[in-house]
Design a protein that fits this description.
Length: 230
């Protein structure tokens, strides 16, 4: 069993959260982390959609980009941090970039897989109606691969929350990741649990929002996921 100083009881954690809130520190940490996740996720997802569409549609771009991107995908999270700090300094840029990297790969991989799984007959019908490459991508390929894209966005959002904690370990003075490291240095396990609870709650809310969007966007589907067996 853990000692009280190793795993404080819930009332102690709640008191620590209230204390942070009254001093205004918890709000600042939550806002700073949330802002980095939103901005990094937005950038990473947008780049992934553009590049994933290009790679998925044209074979030459796949041969050009795919080997490099698959190699970069295997680089551990911590390996990016010192390099980004060297290139971009210690301000917000490296933190947002690291979050964007975390969000990029799940969206990219799922989108490319979804595009490759699009029925070829749909593309052939579009060509019969004299649609160009851009129109085919916009009106046929992306809608057909929407389920995979939305799955990638949910995974990318999860990765964004993971990467933002790592990003805030380095050169940060606010944020839930900073609160974790600062609490570790002061041996305040109660504050560490407050930060972890906030990260879990924010991650869950983010996933619920994306899941609601997914359900609404794919309400036309009639699959086992929508009509489960009794």
């Amino acid at each position: 069993m853990f000692e009280a100083y190793q795993l404080p009881p819930p009332p102690v954690v709640l008191d620590a959260a209230i204390g942070l809130w009254r001093r205004g520190l918890l709000q600042l940490d939550i806002f700073a982390t949330l802002a980095r996740v939103v901005e990094g996720f937005g950038i990473g997802a947008a780049v992934a959609v553009v590049l994933g569409t290009i790679v998925g549609v044209t074979r030459r771009s796949e041969e050009l980009f795919e080997p490099t991107l698959q190699a970069l995908r295997t680089v551990p999270t911590l390996a990016w941090a010192p390099l980004l700090l060297l290139w971009l300094g210690i301000d917000e840029a490296p933190k947002i970039t690291l979050v964007a990297i975390g969000a990029f790969f799940p969206v990219y991989v799922n989108l490319v897989a979804g595009i490759k799984g699009v029925d070829r007959k749909l593309v052939e019908v579009a060509r019969v109606f004299d649609l160009g490459g851009v129109d085919i991508a916009h009106r046929v390929v992306l809608p057909a691969s929407l389920p995979d894209l939305l799955t990638g966005l949910r995974l990318g959002a999860t990765q964004a929350w993971l990467f933002v904690v790592v990003a805030e370990f380095f050169g940060s003075s606010r944020g839930l990741g900073f609160r974790l490291t600062d609490s570790l240095q002061s041996s305040r396990v109660d504050l560490m649990l407050v930060a972890l609870a906030c990260l879990a709650a924010l991650g869950k809310v983010t996933d619920m929002l994306l899941r609601a969007i997914e359900t609404r966007a794919l309400r036309w589907r009639d699959t086992l996921g929508e009509r489960r067996l009794e």
